[in-house]
From TrEMBL:
GO terms for cellular component: cytosol. This is Glutamyl-tRNA ligase. Residues 114-134, 241-276 are annotated as: Disordered. It comes from Natronolimnohabitans innermongolicus JCM 12255. Keywords: Aminoacyl-tRNA synthetase, ATP-binding, Cytoplasm, Ligase, Nucleotide-binding, Protein biosynthesis. GO terms for biological process: amide biosynthetic process; tRNA aminoacylation for protein translation. It is an enzyme of class 6 (ligase). It comes from the Archaea. Signal peptide: none annotated. GO terms for molecular function: ATP binding; glutamate-tRNA ligase activity. Residues 192-241 form the tRNA synthetases class I (E and Q) anti-codon binding domain.
């Protein structure tokens, strides 16, 4: 269109260098406002900030900072052709921005409940952040059973190390406590895995670009503030969502937590997955 103006006035058209048409490599939804709007109208997306939508609003709700996006775009440089933006670059930039300030938590996806036995500690105290001892430790009740991710469940007679507790051996379908000697971890004899208490855990729905994931987190996750970032160990970074409203409802302006009910009627905390 602008070339028409140049031709009309017989002007010399300049060489145009730009970013081109940017495509994102981590989404199933096309980078197109008309396509996204149609999916929203059809109810396939919750809104412009749905984590499955390739939009700035969606990235913001997931806890990805603007600086991370700007740095990735600047790194692309300019071109006369279309370009592909690797979301892994955006994620790496954001990780550099938030890693040191973000506390760690446990979140188990689609977990299996397993009883535990033996003279194990009644409370686990993993650090809030491995690089900042001054922040203190978490206080996670252990109880008489824990929840593990299905792929972490060991076979009979195998050993595992539950973070913050110690070593366990599978005996008759239960995890039997065998001690807290870190030598077995240093020597690579056991897998170190995260867990959540079966009774005291908090139900969580994590919204991701690939769909919703449900599971259980350590109890303290239920007391985190809206917009707070966490790193779920061995899962990734996530943002605690805000008021319990639909994805497109900005009417309240409140900062209350986002709580919903799961299919079984239990209250759940909603978080938005940022990246690994």
């Amino acid at each position: 269109r602008q070339r028409f103006v140049y031709d009309y006035f017989d002007w010399e058209y300049p060489e145009v260098v730009h970013w081109g048409h940017v495509q994102l490599d981590d989404y199933d939804v096309k980078v197109s406002t008309s396509t996204i709007a149609e999916l929203i109208d059809d109810g396939e997306l919750d809104g412009w900030d749905d984590p499955r939508a390739p939009t700035i609003k969606s990235l913001r709700r997931r806890g990805i900072r603007g600086e991370a996006i700007v740095e990735a775009m600047v790194g692309l440089g300019t071109s006369t052709s279309d370009v592909d933006l690797a979301m892994s670059t955006v994620y790496a930039n954001n990780r550099d921005l938030i890693d040191e300030e973000t506390d760690r938590r446990f979140f188990v996806r689609d977990g299996d409940q397993i009883p535990i036995s033996g003279d194990h500690p009644n409370e686990a105290n993993p650090p809030l952040h491995p690089n900042h001892e001054e922040r203190g430790v978490r206080e996670i009740p252990v109880g008489d059973s824990v929840v593990l991710e299905p792929e972490d469940v060991p076979e009979e007679d195998e050993r595992i190390w539950l973070k913050g507790i110690g070593c366990f051996r599978v005996t008759d379908g239960a995890l039997e406590y065998t001690g807290d000697d870190l030598a077995v971890v240093r020597e690579g004899e056991v897998d170190v895995i995260h867990w959540a208490p079966a009774k005291e855990g908090v139900a969580v729905r994590m919204r991701t670009p690939d769909g919703d994931v449900r599971g259980h987190a350590e109890p303290a996750v239920g007391g985190l503030e809206a917009d707070e970032m966490v790193q779920f160990e061995r899962v990734g970074f996530a943002r605690i969502d805000n008021a319990a409203q639909s994805a497109t409802d900005d009417s309240s302006g409140g900062r209350s937590r986002d709580r919903h009910e799961a299919d079984d009627g239990t209250e759940e905390t909603v978080v938005y997955y940022a990246h690994p």
